[in-house]
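Reminder to self: tokens first, then the designed residues, so the page reads top to bottom the way the pipeline ran.
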């Protein structure tokens, strides 16, 4: 970029009046080799601008457009971030610390050699990491409605914005644009949507939006239950809904009261359960589970019926027990050994039984 003519008039006047050395002269000969074409740095880093010189150089200066930064060793810029780092026979370099976007642009190294002014130009390029500056808020919509999500990002170079649905069933990107349009959203499309902004300067900036899809209750499971009389019985009704459903139970046309004695009703987010602690004849019958939210309702019928359990006779049990229990007479003693105890009176008794019939026979013969 050429310097404004008045800048060189001012510099020439100051050189003549103040005898300052190193004040740059106006651009002229373009045959001077450039230090470099471009310098690229990230925002927040330091940029070093180098200018090659030789021993024929009498005056040097660095300028940003028409603003003088340095002349020789003298600093003209009031910006504390601009620092002279080399002024030798071969190099004249400055550093711009903590570079920002407004530092981007052309810089000129002005050199005067044997009264022939020459310039070397460099263009400073500032890269800015991607940053999402605006994104849709979390939303809740009814099933079947259209959804529009937006994600606005900045950066240099301009970042590429992509949308992705965070679900195991989804594959790849849904949209490579700042806007994501979903027509007729379904309950399966409820969840987290991720926006990513990337430009290879640094790691992508990632933000997420939660989309909640409202739908009426849908009963998944409600089964008939058979319970013996006097036992515990449980009826359960499972349902999905957003917002979560409110459950209620009816027997015939009468709603069950949660405070009814001998029964307990538990309502959770996805199911409702009725527990009968001691089922009676009056508990058997047809029950209806109703799941309801502001979008609609669903119901299902459940039957609690009686089943009979086989039972054994008490008398048979007693007889069986008696047959299996070893007899223990009064005063019986067991020493833990197997077999019967010895019979000490067996021989006398047998002899008595033998002699008694014989004596009766003799008595009859005498008469």
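Designed residues (367 positions):
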């Amino acid at each position: 970029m050429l310097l404004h003519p008045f800048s060189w008039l001012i510099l020439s006047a100051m050189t003549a009046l103040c005898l300052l050395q190193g004040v740059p002269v106006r651009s002229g000969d373009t045959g001077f080799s450039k230090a470099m074409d471009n310098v690229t740095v990230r925002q927040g880093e330091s940029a070093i601008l180098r200018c090659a010189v030789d021993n024929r150089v009498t005056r040097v200066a660095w300028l940003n457009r028409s603003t003088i930064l340095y002349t020789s060793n003298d600093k003209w810029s009031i910006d504390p971030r601009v620092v002279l780092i080399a002024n030798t026979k071969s190099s004249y370099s400055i550093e711009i610390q903590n570079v920002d976007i407004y530092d981007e642009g052309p810089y000129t190294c002005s050199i005067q050699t044997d009264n022939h002014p020459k310039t070397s130009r460099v263009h400073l390029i500032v890269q800015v990491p991607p940053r999402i500056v605006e994104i849709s808020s979390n939303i809740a919509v009814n099933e079947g409605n259209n959804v529009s999500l937006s994600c606005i990002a900045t950066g240099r170079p301009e970042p590429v914005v992509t949308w992705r649905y965070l679900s195991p069933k989804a594959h790849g990107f849904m949209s490579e644009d700042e806007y994501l349009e979903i027509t007729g959203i379904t309950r399966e499309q409820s969840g987290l949507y991720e926006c990513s902004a990337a430009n290879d300067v640094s790691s992508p900036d990632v933000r997420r939006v939660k989309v909640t899809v409202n739908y009426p209750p849908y009963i998944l499971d409600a089964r008939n239950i058979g319970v013996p009389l006097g036992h515990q019985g449980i009826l359960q009704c499972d349902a999905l809904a957003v917002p979560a459903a409110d459950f209620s139970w009816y027997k015939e046309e009468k709603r069950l009261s949660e405070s009814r004695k001998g029964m307990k009703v538990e309502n959770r987010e996805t199911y409702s359960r009725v527990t009968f602690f001691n089922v009676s004849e009056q508990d058997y019958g047809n029950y209806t589970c109703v799941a309801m939210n502001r979008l609609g309702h669903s119901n299902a019928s459940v039957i609690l019926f009686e089943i009979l359990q086989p039972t054994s006779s008490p008398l048979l049990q007693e007889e069986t027990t008696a047959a299996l229990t070893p007899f223990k007479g009064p005063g019986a003693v067991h020493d833990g050994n197997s077999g019967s105890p010895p019979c000490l009176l067996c021989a006398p008794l047998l002899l008595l039984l033998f002699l008694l019939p014989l004596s009766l026979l003799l008595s009859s013969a005498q008469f």
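The chain has three domains: 5-129, 136-214, 223-306.
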